[in-house]
From TrEMBL:
Organism encoding this protein: Methanolapillus ohkumae
Gene name in the database record: rnp1
Catalyses which reaction(s): Endonucleolytic cleavage of RNA, removing 5'-extranucleotides from tRNA precursor
Family: Belongs to the eukaryotic/archaeal RNase P protein component 1 family.
Lineage, top ranks: Archaea, Methanobacteriati, Methanobacteriota, Stenosarchaea group, Methanomicrobia
Name by which UniProt lists this protein: Ribonuclease P protein component 1
Gene Ontology biological-process annotations: tRNA 5'-leader removal
Length: 100
């Protein structure tokens, strides 16, 4: 199986669990500024492990900055959570369909 490199353009179609994330803004002001690692994802939320413990952050109404390391160094991408409203497996299927 060929591994597809994560880029800012393809990030929404990849597995996000394990990536570092910053909640840049949120409709819930208590979530803004949270930083941690994504431990789980549902259709509507991310479970983020932070220094303050596990937090459930809604995708809708939030803007996230994801960070990961590639062979080109450290990369960050800002994503509106509204565009991520999908079950993870469905986002990945959509990438496969768009590449055909």
């Amino acid at each position: 199986m060929t591994e597809i490199e994560i880029t800012p353009d393809t990030l929404p179609f990849h597995e996000l669990i394990g990536l570092s994330v910053l909640v840049e803004s949120s409709c819930d002001p208590t979530m803004t500024g949270l930083f941690g690692i994504i431990l789980d994802e549902s259709r509507n939320t991310f479970q983020i492990e932070t220094k303050q413990g596990m937090k459930t952050v809604p995708k809708s109404g939030s803007v996230f900055v994801f960070t990961w390391v590639s062979e080109n160094g450290r990369i960050s991408a800002k994503i509106n959570g509204k565009t991520m409203l999908s079950q993870p497996q469905n986002r990945i299927k959509n990438l496969k369909k768009s590449r055909k």
